[in-house]
Amino acid sequence: MFDGLDRRWALAGLLLAAGCTPQAPAPTLHDSMSQVVAPQAQAIWDITNRAMDDKGAPDGSKISEKDWAQIASAGQLLKDRSDVLAKAKKVTVAAPGVKIQDEENPGGNNATKVQAFIDANPKAFAEHAKALTVAGEGLIAAARSKDVKVAAKVADGLDQVCETCHMQFWYPAKP
Predict the structure, then answer these.
(1) Closest by alpha carbon to 150, among 47, 65, 73, 58?
(2) Segment 3-33, tens digit of pLDDT
(3) pTM of the predicted model as reported, rounded to 2 decimal places
(4) Which residue, of 31, 45, 47, 89, has the fewest CB within 10 Å?
């Protein structure tokens, strides 16, 4: 049957196979938005808004080392989560029974409807997620170089990145 060398190879193969686990499913979109994206975006906006002078221009003297670290961290979290969503084979809007933000408001949609919008055009959703990745990368770079103008520009654009995706998938125009 097996000699000593064959047994070792067979055992090594079994050990490797035992250590291989299937890739965890991507987090839900609801969890990603409510637990990562929204809080990090708000932190970025709070810092960059506070860093404006009386004329509305970015003022780097109003951003502390702690603020720069927070911008870098928030940018990294945005980048990491949006990468996961962009690369997911299937994005799940919410766990069964979970109500999503604004679903009970006029014009709001429930998770099933949002899921249908995403399932109808997953490539477009992935492109929106990639745009959020780019914003995260821009924030990381701005924080590393302490470039308040770039940080402010990316923070300002972040709202548009979010809104563009929301308009296509969360609140699409009614026919």
Answers:
(1) 58
(2) 555 555 554 554 455 555 456 666 899 999 9
(3) 0.82
(4) 89
